[in-house]
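Q: I'm a student working through a structural biology exercise. My instructor gave each of us a protein and asked us to get a predicted structure, then write a short paragraph describing it. Mine is Holliday junction branch migration complex subunit RuvA. I'm not confident about reading structure output yet, so if you can add a plain explanation after the tokens, that would really help. Here is the sequence I was given:
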Amino acid sequence: MIAFVSGRVAQVTLSSAVLEVGGVGLELMCTPGTLATLRTGQAATLPTSMVVREDSLTLFGFADDDEKQTFELVQTASGVGPKVAQSMLAVLTPDDLRRAIAGDDVKTLTKVPGIGQKGAQRIILELKDRIGAPSSVRTPAATPGSAPWRDQVHQGLVGLGWPARDAEKAVDAVAPEAGEVPDVAALLRAALRTLSKA
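A: Happy to help. First, here is the predicted structure for Holliday junction branch migration complex subunit RuvA. I'll explain a few features afterward.
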């Protein structure tokens, strides 16, 4: 298993980042919140989880170890694969997930694309005793103020499968929440909540 990848960021796309490690470009599938913290040409270290399938080896990259452990844990629930697990972390922080599962909050879990009422109830039932309590206050991932948050949130939504027109409406809906220093990850989660209500 590959525990983490450390190298220069060669490329950042809508759903992945390529890190150059010893002359080899490794593609890591990441949430929009994690991608927003990466800049092409800069060094980065991302904890990773490898998903092995019959026809593919996929590396998922995370902002921190807590995100990685949560990603791996939620996949132990039946019906939750790596894509749904990644969507969960795109919409909710690990602590938000813990709160939702511990508090039987089906409504919060169904905000995640791909999780319906029954799926949310199953996840709560299977993970409630294993997910743990929310950790202490976590600081949001830092995002440079110069980054055009609107584009990042829009690209993140499109990367998660939402139509560009719907993504644009969601970006407009969360614009008042941006403030002086926009938190792209929080704005993306807010935009996803807006889309799930529509």
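A: Here are two points you could use in your paragraph. The first strand starts at residue 4 and ends at 12. Strands lie at 4-12, 16-21, 24-29, 43-53, 56-61. It's a good idea to check both against the output above yourself.
Q: Great, thank you!
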